[in-house]
Amino acid sequence: MLDNPHTTVPVDETSLRYEGWRIVAVCFLLATFGWGLGFYGQSVYVAELQRARGWPTSLVSSGTTFFYLFGALLVVFVGEAVRKYGPRLCLISGTLAMAAAGVAVGAVREPWQLYLADAVLAFGWAGTSLAMITNTISLWFDHKRGMAISLALNGASFGGIVGVPLLVTLISHTGFANAMYAAAGAMLVLLVPVILLVVGKPPDLHGWHGAAKARPQSSTQIRKQALRDVGFLTVTIAFALVLFAQVGFIVHLISFLDPVIGRERAAMAVAVLTAMAVIGRVLFSMVIDRLDQRLASALSFLSQAAALCVVINMHGDYVLIAACAVFGFSVGNLITLPSLIVQQEFDSASFGVLISLNTAINQVTYAFGPGVVGFLRDWSGGYALPFYLCIALEVVAAALIMVRGKPRTKFS
Question: With contact defined as beta carbons under 8 Å apart, do 248 and 370 qualify?
């Protein structure tokens, strides 16, 4: 009997010699810069542009909202881009776009330039963040995909741990523009050669090459079915609400803490938050396969709500830092959990399209987080009102995530 030319390639994903683990290392480094400059860096940009330009919170925050909203439109197509052009070219493109965005942010002098810089940053974010990383890793992993994604996304938290304090330090010594130029240069020097050397052609783990001919289902068809599926909708909407609250809180964290505990301790609080995100994700990855992932998500949402209550009502240095630590314990998991739930509950052949759609919907929603928090802060004269809104969203999401769909849904 002749071999089927479209059979999947057998690989041992548990072997340390498996090339997929080198891809995880590349994605870790990509996430470090992607989140350091594109996500956690936003809190630095908001604070610095307020300080240097005297612009109102709502103006700077609306630029961040535009960044996330425009980026969401791009994220939808990340899965198709990776399939069509290959992971190497997509990773290189994302790296170049993020580096260009770093230069553009540093050069901002007028409000219109802020929006232009945020548009460039959106391209960089789409090419270095969750959708790109999960789609890339899915080409090398099936059975160990959850662990691989979790390990790679620790780079997101590492970007916060290293990126925010380092940017603050560089800014204090060299100025905002020079610090951003240095960060962009470091990204190019470290990432481009590594991607060129390590990222090659992925194995056909799932028989997608043959399936493309045998089953002409399009990405558009998968999206339409997903948007009618209860399980997909509840996981997507719940995480969209929580990420709205989480992003709004984190982007404004330094601005909130600066007048309360000082700039240096505010930066320390952000570093503690992101360090706890790493610890939480690592500890969580050891037991997640034995837990109810939706229940774990609900408990994570409620823990963040409790931490926000403390932040609003307590003003001691150590209490605030401790509350940020509790909040941060779930931050990393909330990035990882949607991918794990989608992997567990839906057919693996649809994973790339579904996680890109999930990420895009979440990003469209949380794009408004910084702007709404900034508007409510300016309107009410403080952060209590917007942070209480964040608490309410976390509680609603905790209830919604427990509404389940059909087990192991296959879109075909």
Answer: yes
Q: What's phi and psi for 122, nearest 5 deg?
A: -65, -40
Q: Is the pLDDT of residue 106 over 50?
A: yes
Q: State whether the Cα torsion 349-367-36-185 is positive or negative.
A: positive
Give 134's contacts (C-beta < 8 A, 6+ positions apart).
149, 339, 351, 352, 355, 359
Q: How far apart are CA 301 and CA 327, in angstroms?
A: 9
Q: Which residue has the higher pLDDT, 351 or 216?
A: 351
Rounded Cα gap, residues 411 and 286, in angstroms: 30
How many Å is the maximal CA-CA distance in the chain? Answer: 76
CA distance 84 to 409: 25
Q: How confident is the model at residue 209 (pLDDT cuts 50, 70, 90)?
A: very low
Nearest-angstrom CA–CA distance, 9 and 183: 39
Of 270, 331, 279, 339, nearest to 301 by C-alpha is 331
Which is more confidently placed, 394 or 145? Answer: 394
In whole angstroms, give the CA distance from residue 108 to residue 81. 30
Question: Three-class SS of residue 234?
Answer: helix
Query: Which run of H or E residues covers position 249?
Result: helix 230-251
| Residues 6 or more apart in contact with residue 313 via CB below 8 angstroms | none
pLDDT at 122: 92
Could you tell me which residue, 232 or 52, shows the higher pLDDT? 232
Angstrom CA distances, 376 to 239, 251, 327, 370, 384, stand at 22, 14, 21, 10, 9
Q: What is the CA radius of gyration of the chain?
A: 21
Contact indicator for 219, 80 with CB cutoff of 8 Å: yes
Locate 121 and state its tokens: 């940053």
AA letter at 327: F
* pLDDT tens track for 284-299: 777 766 778 889 899 9
148 Cβ contact partners less than 8 Å away, ≥ 6 residues apart = 13, 20, 21, 24, 137, 140, 141
CA 27 to chain centroid: 13
Best CA proximity match to 132, nearest among 194, 64, 77, 73: 77
Amino acid at 69: L
